[in-house]
């Protein structure tokens, strides 16, 4: 099968090769990929940004999102059968969706939303799980709360805006001038053009902020929170709770050091900071599929590339050109 592997860490470390089909474990389903999407996480893993935490054995196939058809199931699989149309975000250390076939633990797989094409279904597993886990599992968002979501027209932000509105929140978001109307159409109550206005000068009293930019943007985000509010960053710095999530408590002191500045700043302001790194969950994808099928959520795609142009698709995402998800199709 054709696949794109990380041979060495760095910008030029990804290349196309021919590999045997993956072996199917007793609890795995083998999926013939019809589409896969590209996430900023793919770039971070390719560049080795998590190599001390996620110890992939190179070479390994990259890719965190997929939609396709089950062609084989392991001996102990009970919930899926050949012919099922599915979507998934495979768990860490078992990724590999930039390939014609991928073996995925059945607990990470769900039947794809019936209302979506394969291209659309491939665009949503990672961002939909991240939206659910940040807003529902971590922030416990309640109706009437004020939520600020950065980059609300992007791949992640567009999904979080929709889910936050479904949960009954008042939603503010930042967007480029060209994306203002798109963000409003997704349901944002207030859209701030970041090219003209500093969000931290016009917003205050927010319960939750979801940051996908980091750095100065994260520091400013702390200032718009009400006392006891929560800033969640998907780009870091990682905090001690992330070490526990990885099952590596020995790393807690390191992560405490990495996030000390932002945690101290948050403490002085009377607010909270949390780093977020999503977990694979077929059960949550099943719940989310129902939200796509009833129209509560809609996939937001920028454009598609043929599978053999996966490197070009990665470059497009890295250039910051995408407004929505980028999908590669088979």
From TrEMBL:
Residues 10-328 form the Enoyl reductase (ER) domain. Pfam families: ADH_N, ADH_zinc_N_2. One of its GO terms (molecular function) is zinc ion binding. PROSITE patterns: QOR_ZETA_CRYSTAL (PS01162). SMART domains: PKS_ER (SM00829). SUPFAM superfamilies: GroES-like, NAD(P)-binding Rossmann-fold domains. Keywords: Oxidoreductase. PANTHER family: ALCOHOL DEHYDROGENASE RELATED, RETICULON-4-INTERACTING PROTEIN 1, MITOCHONDRIAL. This is NADP-dependent oxidoreductase. It comes from Aeromicrobium ginsengisoli.
């Amino acid at each position: 099968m054709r696949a794109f592997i990380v041979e060495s860490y760095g910008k030029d470390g990804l290349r196309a090769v021919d590999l045997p089909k993956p072996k199917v474990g007793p609890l795995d389903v083998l999926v013939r990929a019809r589409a896969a999407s590209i996430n900023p996480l793919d770039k971070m893993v390719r560049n080795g940004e998590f190599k001390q935490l996620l110890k992939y054995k190179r070479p390994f196939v990259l890719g965190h999102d997929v939609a396709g058809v089950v062609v084989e199931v392991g001996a102990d699989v009970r919930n899926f059968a050949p012919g099922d149309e599915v979507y998934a975000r495979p768990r860490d250390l078992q990724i590999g969706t930039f390939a014609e076939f991928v073996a995925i633990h059945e607990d990470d797989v769900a039947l794809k939303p019936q209302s979506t094409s394969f291209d659309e279904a491939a665009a949503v597993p990672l961002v939909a799980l991240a939206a659910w886990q940040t807003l529902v599992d971590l922030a416990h968002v309640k109706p009437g709360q004020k939520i600020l979501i950065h980059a609300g027209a992007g791949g992640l932000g567009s999904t979080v805006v929709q889910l936050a509105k479904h949960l009954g929140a008042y939603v503010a978001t930042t967007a480029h001038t060209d994306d203002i109307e798109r963000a409003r159409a997704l349901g944002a109550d207030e859209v701030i053009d970041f090219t003209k206005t500093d969000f931290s000068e016009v917003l205050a009293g927010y319960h939750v902020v979801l940051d996908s930019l980091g750095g100065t943007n994260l520091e400013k985000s702390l200032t718009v929170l009400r006392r006891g509010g929560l800033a969640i960053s998907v780009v870091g710095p990682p905090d001690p709770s992330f070490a526990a999530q990885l099952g590596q408590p020995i790393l807690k002191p390191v992560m405490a050091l990495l996030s000390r500045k932002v945690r101290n700043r948050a403490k002085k302001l009377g607010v909270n900071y949390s780093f977020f790194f999503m977990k694979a969950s077929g059960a949550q994808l099943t719940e989310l599929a129902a939200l796509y099928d009833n129209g509560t959520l809609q996939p937001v795609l920028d454009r598609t590339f043929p599978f053999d142009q996966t490197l070009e698709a990665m470059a497009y995402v890295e250039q910051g050109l995408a407004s929505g998800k980028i999908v590669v199709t088979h």
